[in-house]
Every structure is written in structure tokens, then in C-alpha cells.
Design brief:
Length: 94
């Protein structure tokens, strides 16, 4: 498989992570029914199709291709994403 050979040669880590993973599921498009990504590509005025064999994310009625998930920061390639998060808790007033 070409992707495996490219990864082995470059040593590049191609894993993706969901920093806010609540409710998201990964799926593979396995049939030819028309399904569209929830987001539009920059400059487009239409939603793009998910194609057979494509890996995408689902949360409720929302379907998101990996390109849009990366662009909207739903997924990241930063393995240490949990260390870079900004704390949502307010500091105690001491």
C-alpha cells in the first residue's frame, strides 16, 4: 500500500486525535447513497459529497470529512494536544 510505504520512509506520524471526543464517531462510507459533509470548502457555496471508502466523523446528524475536521480543529495531528489545552476553569481568587 502506497500510504504505508510513504509513512515508513518519512517516519511521519499520520495519526489524528479528537481533543473534544464527546459524541464523535469515526466511520467508513460503505455505500453509494449521497451523503454530504456538514461543512463547505472555503470559497464554495455548496456542500461536498462523501465518497465510498472515505473515512469521516459523525456526531448526531453532523457528518464531517477529515479535511474539514482538520480545518475546523475538530481533529489534530498534535499527539500532545492534551498538554496544550487552555484550562477552562477559572483560577481561585486567593
Amino acid at each position: 500500500m502506497q500510504l504505508e510505504n510513504e509513512t515508513e520512509a518519512s517516519g511521519e506520524d499520520r495519526r489524528l486525535y479528537l481533543p473534544q471526543h464527546d459524541g464523535w464517531e469515526g466511520r467508513v462510507k460503505s455505500d453509494s447513497t449521497k451523503e454530504y459533509c456538514y461543512y463547505k470548502n472555503p470559497g464554495d457555496d455548496f456542500f461536498h459529497l462523501l465518497v465510498v471508502g472515505e473515512i469521516y466523523l459523525v456526531r448526531g446528524d453532523e457528518k464531517c470529512c477529515l479535511n474539514c475536521a482538520i480545518r475546523h480543529a475538530i481533529v489534530t495531528s498534535d499527539r500532545l494536544h492534551w498538554q496544550h489545552r487552555v484550562s477552562r476553569t477559572k483560577p481561585l481568587p486567593f
